[in-house]
Amino acid sequence: MAAQPLVEIVQFPKTRIAVLSHRGAPILLGKSIKNFIEWRQAYGPSPKVSKTFNIIYTDPAKVEAEDYRLDLAVSVSQAVEDNEFGVYSSVIPEGPCAKIRYTGTDDNLSAPVQYLYQKWLQDNDVNLRSYPLFFHRVTLTGEVPPHKMVTDIYLPISYRSQERGL
User: Fold this and answer.
1) What one-character-per-residue DSSP string does 100-142 give?
2) Alpha-carbon torsion angle 54, 123, 63, 18, nearest 10
3) In angstroms, rounded to a whole number, what is the distance separating the alpha carbons of residues 53 and 92?
4) For residue 102, what pLDDT is reported?
5) Across residues 145-152, what is the average pLDDT?
6) Are 17 and 59 in contact (CB under 8 A)?
């Protein structure tokens, strides 16, 4: 039996981001990533000085391909100017998050995500906040071999006792 991932509760800071939204089949995500990289090379901050995020709205295993939704994002210090790539400004809100640090390929990334939703949430006095789960890509493709890639998984939460006014 695999060991349960270590879950840490952290206070995530409000983070201004530049976003490129992907809508449609996961197989087409490569095109969105290519467009995001081109925007980043033309206008955006380097991965060396800014954080890269994926904001996950749907589970590709549970929605029709055309309903799949994911945002590619990067931390920025100022608002994004209009551009031909469709990248726009947004914010990851401040608040408590359950965090798992995952090392490995994206092929196995769903296991810690499923653990958070299916086991950890049930065993803890928390609810989901209105912001979706997101990944901070600590290392990116090409920086390390795929099996050594590091991704921090954040699940925005609120405490049930706070919601009841206790």
Assistant:
1) EEEES-GGGTHHHHHHIIIIIHHHTTEEE-SSPPEEEESS-BT
2) -20
3) 10
4) 97
5) 94
6) no
Nearest to 11 by CA among 92, 89, 114: 92
Contacts with 58 (C-beta within 8 Å, 6 or more apart), sequence order: 67, 68, 69, 70
Torsion angle in degrees (nearest 10) through CA of 51, 106, 86, 134: -60
* CA–CA distance, 53 with 146 (Å, rounded to integer): 17
Per-residue b/e over 113-145, b at no fewer than 16 CB within 10 Å? Answer: bebbeeebeeeeebeeeebbbbbbbbeeeeeee
Placement of tokens 């931390």 in the chain: 75
Residue 165 confidence (pLDDT) above 60: no
Domains and CATH numbers, the chain: 8-163 (3.20.80.10)
State pTM to two decimals.
Answer: 0.92
How far, in Å, CA of 19 to CA of 55, rounded?
9
Strands 134-137 and 69-75: unpaired
Under 8 Å between Cβ of 72 and 36: yes
